[in-house]
UniProtKB/TrEMBL annotation:
It comes from Cellvibrio fontiphilus. The keyword Lipid metabolism does not apply. Coiled coil: none annotated. Residues 100-164 form the Chromosomal replication initiator protein DnaA ATPAse domain. Keywords: DNA replication. Residues 171-235 form the Hda lid domain. Belongs to the DnaA family. This is DnaA regulatory inactivator Hda. InterPro entries: Chromosome_initiator_DnaA-like, DnaA_dom, Hda, Hda_lid, P-loop_NTPase.
Length: 237
């Protein structure tokens, strides 16, 4: 990560659980194609600019942070910027020096839509990164055409690279994704218990993974396996 002002350090931390390997995208699915496109962007076989969009909870933040981890593994300098947390700062100051970074990720783009200072700053950042041959990955809940942007030149730039829509998971896929994430944590999450969780919690994958983290901590603390009675006790569901 590049050096940002000290007060921003909490806003740019990466989640260690965010990896390409634990993003549920079976071979042959649309989301598997998205993963392939991100890998190609990083290994130099794809476009330098990639735009991801999809419904809340589809995994955009996970993919951006996973891409950052993969970029770091490849030896790139990396900066992840969650705009939802940083929109109160002056963008020109925030973006100083970013054109020297190999891989920049801008998350939650709609947060700054309609703000002329931010839109112009991102437009200029895009141009600087492109001129320097650096990589840029952007995520939003809408396609570039649907964003409520005031700067049409920025909308045009956002359509220059590759655009991928990340598809939301159905309930069966969410169960598989939850079990995949549990295995990555060293947890045994059987079908019956996974189905119990899916049926009783909000279907948002971010919420499901957050509750899995709670179960992981409780399981370690109490040295208990994940059973329905234990899950019911910890999550009160």
């Amino acid at each position: 990560m590049v050096n940002l002002p000290q007060q921003l350090s909490l806003g740019v931390n990466l989640n260690d659980d965010a990896t390409f390997e634990n993003f549920y995208a079976p071979a042959g699915t649309h989301n598997a194609m998205v993963l392939q496109g991100l890998r190609q962007q990083l290994n130099g076989a794809g476009d330098l600019f990639v735009y991801l969009w999809g419904a809340p909870g589809c995994g955009l933040t996970h993919l951006l942070q996973a891409a950052c981890h993969e970029a770091q593994r490849l030896g790139f300098s990396v900066q992840y910027l969650p705009l939802r947390d940083l929109a109160g700062y002056a963008p020109d100051e925030l973006f100083v020096g970013l054109d020297a970074v190999d891989f920049v990720c801008l998350d939650c783009l709609p947060t700054i839509a309609g703000r002329s200072d931010w839109e112009l700053a991102i437009f200029n950042l895009y141009n600087r990164l492109r001129d320097a041959g650096k990589r840029l990955l952007v995520a939003a809940e809408q396609s570039p055409r649907e964003l409520a942007l005031g700067l049409e030149d920025l909308r045009s730039r956002l359509q220059w690279g590759l655009t991928y829509q990340v598809q939301s998971l159905n309930d069966e896929d969410k169960q598989q994704a939850l079990q995949l994430r549990a295995r990555a944590r060293g947890l045994e999450l059987g079908d019956e218990v996974a189905q119990y969780i899916i049926q009783r919690l909000p279907r948002d994958t971010n919420e499901l993974f957050w509750q899995l983290q709670r179960l992981d901590h409780a399981s370690l603390a109490e040295q208990r396996k994940l059973t329905i009675p234990f899950v019911k006790k910890i999550l009160a569901i």
